[in-house]
Design a protein that fits this description.
It contains two helices and three strands, in the order H-E-E-E-H. It is an alpha+beta fold.
Protein backbone atom coordinates (compact mmCIF):
# COMPACT_ATOMS: atom_id res chain seq x y z
CA UNK A 1 0.00 0.00 0.00
CA UNK A 2 1.36 3.41 -0.97
CA UNK A 3 1.82 6.06 1.71
CA UNK A 4 -0.91 8.29 0.20
CA UNK A 5 -3.37 5.36 0.20
CA UNK A 6 -2.37 4.60 3.80
CA UNK A 7 -3.34 8.14 4.82
CA UNK A 8 -6.63 7.82 2.95
CA UNK A 9 -7.69 4.66 4.77
CA UNK A 10 -6.58 6.18 8.09
CA UNK A 11 -8.90 9.14 7.48
CA UNK A 12 -11.77 6.77 6.73
CA UNK A 13 -11.08 4.79 9.92
CA UNK A 14 -11.14 8.02 11.93
CA UNK A 15 -14.42 9.04 10.27
CA UNK A 16 -16.00 5.69 11.14
CA UNK A 17 -14.86 5.96 14.75
CA UNK A 18 -16.14 9.53 14.98
CA UNK A 19 -19.56 8.55 13.62
CA UNK A 20 -19.74 5.64 16.06
CA UNK A 21 -19.13 8.02 18.97
CA UNK A 22 -21.78 10.44 17.72
CA UNK A 23 -24.38 7.72 17.21
CA UNK A 24 -23.63 5.73 20.34
CA UNK A 25 -22.58 8.04 23.19
CA UNK A 26 -21.35 6.90 26.59
CA UNK A 27 -23.81 4.83 28.63
CA UNK A 28 -24.52 7.80 30.91
CA UNK A 29 -26.04 9.64 27.93
CA UNK A 30 -27.78 6.66 26.35
CA UNK A 31 -31.51 6.07 26.40
CA UNK A 32 -33.25 2.72 25.96
CA UNK A 33 -33.75 1.69 22.37
CA UNK A 34 -30.86 3.72 20.98
CA UNK A 35 -28.35 2.13 18.62
CA UNK A 36 -25.15 0.69 20.00
CA UNK A 37 -22.21 0.88 17.60
CA UNK A 38 -19.12 -1.18 18.35
CA UNK A 39 -15.87 -0.56 16.46
CA UNK A 40 -12.86 -2.83 16.75
CA UNK A 41 -9.59 -1.61 15.23
CA UNK A 42 -6.91 -4.00 13.97
CA UNK A 43 -3.65 -2.04 13.54
CA UNK A 44 -1.66 -5.01 12.18
CA UNK A 45 -3.91 -5.14 9.09
CA UNK A 46 -4.96 -1.47 9.07
CA UNK A 47 -8.57 -2.51 9.32
CA UNK A 48 -11.62 -2.60 11.51
CA UNK A 49 -14.95 -4.23 12.16
CA UNK A 50 -18.19 -2.37 12.87
CA UNK A 51 -21.11 -4.07 14.61
CA UNK A 52 -24.46 -2.33 15.19
CA UNK A 53 -27.47 -3.22 17.32
CA UNK A 54 -30.22 -0.81 16.25
CA UNK A 55 -32.18 -1.00 19.52
CA UNK A 56 -29.25 -1.40 21.87
CA UNK A 57 -26.96 -4.29 22.65
CA UNK A 58 -28.48 -7.32 24.32
CA UNK A 59 -26.81 -10.57 25.32
CA UNK A 60 -27.70 -13.45 23.01
CA UNK A 61 -29.14 -11.08 20.39
CA UNK A 62 -27.61 -11.02 16.91
CA UNK A 63 -26.34 -7.72 15.56
CA UNK A 64 -28.43 -5.87 12.97
CA UNK A 65 -25.36 -4.86 10.94
CA UNK A 66 -21.81 -6.17 10.71
CA UNK A 67 -19.10 -5.06 8.28
CA UNK A 68 -15.38 -4.72 8.20
CA UNK A 69 -12.23 -4.61 6.13
CA UNK A 70 -8.49 -5.01 6.16
CA UNK A 71 -6.85 -1.84 4.91
CA UNK A 72 -4.29 -3.65 2.81
CA UNK A 73 -6.95 -5.26 0.59
CA UNK A 74 -7.67 -3.74 -2.82
CA UNK A 75 -11.27 -2.81 -2.01
CA UNK A 76 -10.74 -1.51 1.53
CA UNK A 77 -11.51 2.11 0.62
CA UNK A 78 -14.79 1.09 -1.03
CA UNK A 79 -15.74 -1.06 1.96
CA UNK A 80 -14.91 1.81 4.32
CA UNK A 81 -17.06 4.16 2.22
CA UNK A 82 -19.99 1.72 2.47
CA UNK A 83 -19.65 1.63 6.26
CA UNK A 84 -19.44 5.43 6.41
CA UNK A 85 -22.60 5.73 4.30
CA UNK A 86 -24.43 3.25 6.54
CA UNK A 87 -23.41 5.12 9.71
CA UNK A 88 -24.24 8.54 8.23
CA UNK A 89 -27.70 7.26 7.30
CA UNK A 90 -28.14 5.79 10.77
CA UNK A 91 -27.07 9.07 12.37
CA UNK A 92 -29.44 11.02 10.11
CA UNK A 93 -32.42 8.76 10.85
CA UNK A 94 -31.65 8.89 14.56
CA UNK A 95 -31.58 12.70 14.50
CA UNK A 96 -34.76 12.95 12.41
CA UNK A 97 -36.65 10.66 14.78
CA UNK A 98 -35.59 12.79 17.74
CA UNK A 99 -33.72 10.00 19.48
CA UNK A 100 -30.23 11.44 19.50
CA UNK A 101 -30.16 11.66 23.29
CA UNK A 102 -29.08 15.31 23.43
Amino acid sequence: MKRQEHKGINAKIMKIMSLALEISPADAEKKDGQPHVFVEYFPHILGLEVVVWLNGWEEDKDADYRAGFGGYHNNACEQADEIITYLENLKSSKTESGTNGR
